Amino acid sequence: MNNESQMQYVAMTVGETSITSTSRANAPQPMAPMEKPRKFTVIDFKRWQQKMFFYLTTLCLQRFTSEDAPEVPEGTSKKEHFMIVEAWKHSNFLCRNYILTALQDDLYNVYSGTKTSKELRGTITKIQDRGCGN
């Protein structure tokens, strides 16, 4: 390999490394996981709710408590449609179950029939706002 070839190789390698590093740097980075909130026992709902909100935020899952499943635009390939829907289902599953496992067992049984994180959050909030432990 002559000097010119070596310089081109080094420039190409540096460029690839730069692009790879930049791509990774621009991707949303989850925060370091924090300690899981104590189980909710119907006491101090607002405090538990704020701790759970923060915990889900550190896991990059909080948005699933307020968003519906995405509508995939018409004309999207079947493969891409499948990937979008499955990614949302997976993240919603994680979010919903993080919330459910942070409930005391008797409350888990009450709320485990919900289908989405948004529905779960809404149901818990509605019942607690009626006066059961604010």
Can you tell me about this structure?
The protein has 134 residues and is mainly alpha-helical. It folds into 2 domains: 1-29; 31-129, no CATH class. The chain is 61% helix and 0% strand. The chain contains 5 helices and no strands. The chain has helices spanning 3-26, 45-58, 78-101, 105-111, 117-129. Helix 3 packs parallel to helix 5. The chain is elongated, with a radius of gyration of 22 Å.
Helicity, as a percent range: 55-70%
Q: Would you identify the regions where 5 or more consecutive residues have pLDDT less than 50? A: 13-27
Number of domains: 2
Structural class: mainly alpha
Shape: elongated
User: What is the overall number of helices?
Assistant: 5
Rg, Cα atoms, Å: 22 Å
Number of strands: 0
Keywords:
mainly alpha, 134 residues, 5 helices, 2 domains, single chain
Describe the protein's topology.
Layout: H1 3-26, H2 45-58, H3 78-101, H4 105-111, H5 117-129
Helix pairs in contact: 3-5
Short structural summary:
This protein is an all-alpha fold.
